[in-house]
Amino acid sequence: MTARSEEVREALTWLERRGSKRTREEMLTRYGITAPKAFGVKVSDIRLLAKRLGRDHELAAALWETGWYEARMLTSFVDDPARVTPAQMDRWARDFDNWAICDTLCFHLFDRTPHAWRKVDQWSRRRDEFVKRAAFALLASVALHDKRTGDEPFLQSLALVERGASDGRNFVKKGVSWALRGIGRRNRALNIAAVELARRLAESPEAGARWVGKDALRELTGPVVRRQLAARRAVKA
User: Fold this and answer.
1) Buried b (16+ CB within 10 A) or exposed e, 205-233
2) Rounded to whole angstroms, how far apart are CA atoms 131 and 128?
3) Which of 50, 92, 133, 177 could lock 77 by a disulfide, CB 3.0 to 4.6 Å apart?
4) Is residue 93 part of a domain?
5) Is 152 within a domain?
6) For the chain, what is the domain count?
7) What is the mean pLDDT of the chain?
8) DSSP element (H, E) containing 231
9) Is residue 41 part of a domain?
10) Per residue in 170-189, pLDDT tens?
11) DSSP letters spanning 22-76
């Protein structure tokens, strides 16, 4: 047994010991997470193990190949964003089989890579439900975490959002709404553009688009977002 395979075995053993039937049941019944290979470990415990392991690109690749839900969740905290390649992102995205894996990888790993914007565009054109969701989960994650990019890329991405809103599949439309809301929360100018699109979608003859528009409008025109945007303007003034 190699040192790397021993590390994987030890990580899986650690996870298995902290798994429970109750958590596995809650994953499905409470959160709608379908995972054929799952120990039933809480995310807080997965993150604890990630801190112990540290960043390790090769270990993350080996953990992913095990197919275990918790091992794949672990990779989002263990892999090194600087070493993640576009080919790896495509390969892993094809393996996405539930929203939790999709969103966690996008939110904690993929959005920190230099390939994020390219994958948003590419994946938004894919048919697979979780790959397409990944496009918008990644866009939402970039909108939240990227503090340096200007407004223009986000304004351009609204065309992808509008096109994606016509996909009425549950996990896709929720990802589209998340992206639209994320863009609209960045600043006042983007909020105006996002609200304009949301209003247009809310009047769409397509049920999925209407749902996205109304879902985004509730948040983007609500008091919480208005206060946040006002506070940001005050700081810049």
Assistant:
1) eeebbbbbbebbbebbeeeebeeebeeee
2) 5
3) 50
4) no
5) yes
6) 1
7) 96
8) helix 223-236
9) no
10) 999 999 999 999 999 999 99
11) HHHHHHHHTT----SS-----HHHHHHHHHHH---HHHHHHHHHT--HHHHHHHH
